[in-house]
Structure formats: C-alpha cells, structure tokens
Design goal:
about 475 residues, alpha/beta, Rossmann fold, 2 domains, 9-stranded mixed β-sheet, 6-stranded parallel β-sheet, about 15% strand
Length: about 475
C-alpha cells in the first residue's frame, strides 16, 4: 500500500516530502523510488533514440529535419541522489540492481564499487555483529557499513548494462554525499553537470542535519543553473524550458526523513518550485515512553522573535535555571546537561568555564581517551556536571552512568534520545523514579521537537498553558 501510494504521487510528477520514513519502511520507499526514476531514464532514452532515428532518416532522404525533437537537457545527468554515507549509496545501488537483474543487464565496475563502498576485506563491522540490544536499532541501521561521507559516483544506464564510475557528463544517475558533491564543484569551480537534473532524491535528511546542513544548501543553490560551457551540446535538441531558465520549475524532488526539522521544512517551502505541485505527509505524534512516576518539568521562556531566540534561551538558562540548580544541594551534583545545538554547546561550556564550575564535556570532537576520562570523572563524582552535545550522542550512543538530574537546554531533535537519557539513571542500582529530576527548556520555536516528545496534543497543551 505504501509503495502504491508513493508511486501514485510520483507518477503525477509532484514533489514529495515523506516526513516519517521509519526503519521498517525505508527499504520499501527506496525500492519504489528506484523503480520510478529508472522508468524516467528508460523513457527518456527511448525518446532520444527514436528521435535520432527520425533525424537519420530525414538526412538520408534529404528532407527537412523534424522540429519536435527537443528531448534533452544541457548535460546528460538527469537523476541526483543525495545520501549521507557510502553505506547509504550501497543500499540505493542494491535497489537499482534489483530492477536491472543479470543476465539481462551487465554491471561494469561492480568489483570496484563493492571495494570502495563496502567495508575493507577482512574488516569486521562491530555494529552489525554486536549482540542485539547493545546499541539501539536505529543507530545500528544508520552507522553499519562504510561510514565515509565524502564520495560521488556516476552511473550510466543503457538498455543492457549499468556502468558504475562513469564520467559525470556521460552518466544518467549521480549518487553523492553533499560534502562530496560540494568538493567536486569547488575543485573545478563549476556545477554544469547539475544543470539538467530532472529528478532529485534526498534520503535520510534527519542524518544530513546532523552533518553539515550548509553542504545541502550549497548543492541546492547550484541545481538547474545555466551551464558555463556548452559541453558539445546540440542546442536544437534542448528542451525549451532549459533554454528559458525554467528547469527548476519542472524538476521533481523527493525528500525522505524520519521526522521534520525547521531546516527540512524550509527546504520544502522555499526551494521546491515544481509547477505540478508538492505533497508533504503529516502525522499525529504520541508522547514518548518514560519511566513511570518520573517527574518531567517543561520550562518555557518568553521569546517573540526567532532571531533573538538563541540569546533569550542563553539568558534564561544562565540567569534563572543555572542559579537555581547551583543553590540546590541535590541538583548541583550528578547533573547532565544536554545541548542540541553545537553553537549553544560552545556558549554553555564557555559559561561553565568562566564561572569555574566542576564539569566535564562529551562532544562530537571528543577523542576516545577524552570520552573515557569524562565518563569516569562524572560517574565517580569528581565532576559535578556533564555537558553532552546532541551530535555526540547521535554518533557515539554511549550509555552514561551516574546521572541523577537531567537538564535539556532544548528538546533533542531525536525524541528517542530523550527517552534514552531518562533511562540512564536506572543503570545504577537502587535508583527510584523519585530520585531523578528532569527539566526541559523550550520556546514556541521548538514546536517540531517538542511535539515528538510530548505528543501533538501534549505539545499544544504546553504552549497554550504558557500563553495564558
């Protein structure tokens, strides 16, 4: 049913933003979308070959060439897939292979692809081979395999072959990471191979927001622009809307994510201009499960401008929440502070350093040695506070012991992180729900994240309650 609905939307040429692609539905979505873009490439190839034949017959008969042969773009690539890791590209290649089976199709350079996008020979994937329950399932599915995020590969599709590692200007499909594509563009100072993209697919957008979102914006800013060079193009064969600079209005975009963020919603609202229209899925969120009888305290600060939000949050945290925490004998020790934004994390750490508080940090830049020292110092009580960045938890997913008080500087993007952190105090013996405190600082601009934690109804009630 999901695949039929997806193909129904895609066959209407509308853009699609699927906002809750789960671990169980990701493969099904990938399969349906691959079938759709292969159908697009096949139809395009047939039309070009048919028009080639018509032009050839006209030349042989010394007749006027047909005029309705506008069937190409400035360059050949028409499908672009943006994915975060080489393992993600591997999954999309598997979907492609399923619809181009041998012996009908010959796959060229398969061995090289398996070598470069799989794990090195003899390497053991610790995530894939770990005992069930050691790591959360979403972490295993995201990070197993080759985790390199700097890559790009062109795929040329013919009637009986699939050629991997084809030249960008001779391929039909490009699979790349935003970083890999950006480095390629900046190296040559041109993005002509993106001038005629007719279908864009962005997978695992929630993971891309945990990387550098600026790379995604950079790629989008270079899509469907007029090329700097001609690349031996036959301009009599170019579709008129490319010549008119209207390619972006005919491009179909498919966005896949596990949840929405302000960045992904902005991308959907501001950059998708498809004249056929666009579709975005919605859902009612249920509140996350937390240990029974555990007291959750959601604290809202006043903010009327998105521009002032980071400053207002920091001011409220340093003048209201932090002084109250330091006055409490219970909360001024064994306290973990979770900070979603990397920029906010730096500000909070600077504040702790300036005030001379007893603290240690776990960030995405922490080495294994730093992590081990920080966990030990916090668990043994040598350090009273533990500052945790969301990116650290996303990439490492360590279980942290010694926590009795949790402070969320903002709600985490991943609602599952909220439940995981609230479960960590109970890793220690004889800890009761009444021994644990939890405070979450939020503003009305945290709606997406708050909704995933408190549920749609709960988040609405929280905002209304504080608006009175």
């Amino acid at each position: 049913e999901l695949q039929s609905t997806t193909l129904s939307v895609l066959s209407s040429n509308r853009d699609l933003h699927h906002t809750h692609t789960t671990l169980d539905t990701a493969a099904k979505m990938r399969d349906a979308i691959t079938l759709h873009y292969l159908n697009h490439v096949t139809k395009k190839r047939r039309r070009v070959l048919k028009n080639n034949e018509r032009l050839s017959h006209a030349i042989k008969a010394s007749a006027s060439p047909p005029e309705d042969v506008q069937d190409q773009g400035f360059t050949r690539p028409s499908i672009l897939l943006l994915v975060p890791f080489r393992s993600s590209a591997f999954n999309w290649f598997d979907a492609l292979s399923a619809h181009t089976p041998s012996p009908t199709h010959q796959v060229e350079n398969r061995a090289r692809f398996l070598n470069e996008f799989g794990l090195p020979e003899g390497a053991v994937d610790k995530l894939a081979t770990a005992e069930p329950g050691t790591y959360p399932r979403d972490h295993v599915e995201t990070f197993k395999g080759n985790m390199d995020d700097n890559f790009r590969v062109g795929i040329k599709l013919t009637r009986k072959s699939v050629k991997l590692f084809a030249d960008f200007y001779a391929c039909d499909v490009i699979i790349a990471s935003p970083l890999g594509l950006r480095m390629s563009i900046e190296k040559d100072n041109k993005a002509d191979f993106l001038s005629s993209i007719e279908m864009l697919i962005v997978d695992q957008m929630d993971t891309l927001t945990m990387q550098n979102w600026e790379h995604v914006q950079f790629v989008f800013s270079h899509l469907n622009k007029l090329p700097k060079e001609s690349h031996n193009t036959d301009f009599s064969r170019i579709k008129p809307w490319y010549l008119d600079g209207h390619a972006a209005y005919l491009r179909q975009t498919v966005l896949l994510s596990a949840y929405e963020t302000p960045e992904t919603r902005n991308l959907f609202n501001q950059t998708l201009k498809n004249v056929a229209g666009k579709v975005r899925t919605t859902r009612q969120w249920a509140p996350v499960q937390v240990p029974q009888d555990l007291d959750q305290n959601f604290v809202q600060f006043d903010c009327t401008s998105l521009k002032d939000e980071p400053e207002k949050r920091f001011h409220y945290f340093t003048t209201q929440m932090l002084p109250a925490i330091m006055k409490s004998a219970v909360q001024s020790a064994n306290t973990a502070i979770f900070v979603p934004s990397s920029f906010d994390f730096i500000r909070v750490e600077n504040q702790f350093r300036k005030q001379g508080y007893s603290y240690t940090v776990l960030s995405e830049y922490s080495s294994n040695q730093d992590i081990s020292r920080a966990r030990q110092a916090f668990f043994t009580g040598k350090k009273s506070f533990l500052l945790i960045s969301e990116r650290f938890h996303f990439y490492r997913r360590y279980k942290l012991r010694g926590i009795r008080n949790l402070v969320f500087y903002g709600p985490p993007d991943h609602a599952q992180f909220y439940t995981e952190l609230l479960s960590y105090p109970f890793l220690d013996e004889d800890v009761q729900p009444g021994d644990v405190t939890c405070r979450t600082l939020f503003s009305k601009y945290d709606w997406f994240r708050l909704e995933r934690i408190a549920g749609t109804k709960g988040a609405t009630a929280l905002l209304k309650q504080n608006a009175l």
